[in-house]
Amino acid sequence: MRSRYSAYVLNLIDYLVSTTLPAQQPDLDRGAMDSWSRNSRWLGLEVESTTAGGASDDRGEVTFRASWADPDGSQHAHSECSSFRRVAKRWYFVDPNHPVKAGRNQPCPCGSGRKFKHCCSD
Fold first, then answer.
1. Other C-beta atoms within 10 Å of 116: how many?
2. Packing angle, helices 30-39 and 2-10, rounded to 10
3. 122 pLDDT band (50/70/90 cuts)?
């Protein structure tokens, strides 16, 4: 979570996309991500808790609070419990705004070549 927050601060949109679950990457709005990143004054990140996500886990959660100010000076904070999933030994953010759509026995839309149920399925 810290690396994704830092990527927003530094406007590293390619990093944000590449660390999102591959099956969700085509649905991301890069323009909106870029605009929010560039037009916000980032005020801080507080990681409140983590669940799982260790060396032997394939899933994990991070509860956090991110703060920022808009160009007009109005300040905001967003709290969320984000899910992460390990796919092929790499951790990815699971974007709750873009559900992955595929049948369990269909190839995974992330392009891994694996069946959806063994890859990006919930």
1. 20
2. 80
3. low
Rounded to two decimals, the pTM is: 0.86
Rg (CA), the chain: 15
Task: Name residue, tokens 């160009």.
Answer: 71
**Is-contact 95 28, C-beta < 8 A?**
yes
What one-character DSSP code corresponds to residue 82? E
Q: Which is higher by pLDDT, 17 or 104?
A: 17
Bridge partner list, 85: 59, 92
Q: Which amino acid is at 91?
A: W
Q: CA 27, 30, 31, 32 torsion: positive or negative?
A: positive
Q: What is the pLDDT of residues 24-70, one digit of tens each?
A: 999 999 999 999 999 999 999 999 999 999 999 989 999 999 999 99
Rounded distance between C-alpha atoms, residue 107 and residue 109, angstroms: 6
Q: Is 120 helix (H, G, I), strand (E, B) or coil?
A: coil
Distance CA(30)–CA(10), nearest Å, equals 15
